[in-house]
Automatic annotation (TrEMBL):
Location of this chain's protein in the cell: Cytoplasm; Nucleus
One Gene Ontology cellular component: cytoplasm
One BP annotation, GO: proteolysis
Gene source species: Caligus rogercresseyi (Sea louse)
GO molecular function: metal ion binding; metallopeptidase activity
Keyword Plastid recorded: no
Protein name: COP9 signalosome complex subunit 5
Keywords linked to the UniProt accession: Cytoplasm, Hydrolase, Metal-binding, Metalloprotease, Nucleus, Protease, Signalosome, Zinc
Family the UniProt entry places it in: Belongs to the peptidase M67A family. CSN5 subfamily.
Amino acid sequence: PSEYQTIPQNKIEDFGVHCKSYYSLDVTYFKSAMDKRLLSSLWNHYWVNTLSTSSLITNSEYTT
C-alpha cells in the first residue's frame, strides 16, 4: 500500500499532465480575540439578512 492518497479522477482531469504534482495540504484555522469581536459585530449587524436571504437566489448564476 502506498503511503500517499490516490489522486481523485476529477483532479487528474483538472490538472492533466501535472496531476502527479497534486497533493493535499493540512489546513488549520484560528480566530484571535480581534477576529471574534469583528465577527460578532458583523453577525449582530447582518443576522437578519443572513436569515432572510436564500442561498439559491444569491448563487443562482452558479447553478444550472
